[in-house]
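re the bet — no i am not wrong, look at it urself. input seq straight from the record:
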Amino acid sequence: MRAWWLDDGNAPTIAVAVPTAYLPDWIGPQDYPEAAKAARLEGTVELSWNVARDGRIDSCRIDRSSGHPILDQATCRLLIERGWFRVVSANGPRLRHFSSSYRWKLPPAGTAIPVPATGA
């Protein structure tokens, strides 16, 4: 995961945005879109996102498509829904910008994809 500061023009601030997990922890095989599974679509999505002052991911951009919009859209949607950063700052948190990639890969035909557990 790459990260860099967004300069807002204020005096230097010591700020750190630390992910509470990493992309493979936020998105997994159980999240494979049904239509993509049925069509056996695979690909790697390169994306970037901004972390807001409260630690939530407030935007996501596809930098390089997987070649399949359904996989690209699912990656950003899940990242925004599940991604969370702990923001630590000396003078008030500033926005952070991160980028990474996620590879959607199906298991061999006939292998089950895990189903997420539901709470009772």
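see?? Residues 29 and 113 are 6 Å apart (CA to CA). told u. also Strands lie at 2-5, 15-19, 43-51, 57-64, 85-89, 96-104. so pay up
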